[in-house]
Amino acid sequence: MPELLTVPEVAERLRIGRRAAYEAIARGDIPGAVKIGRTIRVSSFTLDQWLHGTGHNGTENEKPLGVSPTLSDEKERPWKAPPLN
Known about the structure:
Elements: E1 4-5, H1 7-14, H2 18-27, E2 33-36, E3 39-43, H3 44-51, H4 71-76
């Protein structure tokens, strides 16, 4: 089973802020994210493959960085980034 990362761990790997990581996950820009209860975890295996430019089946990324999600993507993500206080 692949290691599951917390959002702050993902942010650290990507060298972005925690809020930016939550927002990117909510937009669907970061693959491998799953919601478990009230927490979000990201597969380290899927994240590493995405960072190296290959998808889960060894092909090129289907959605490169900077591409906005489509309306159908919105329906597949039932959660939004939590507000930061």
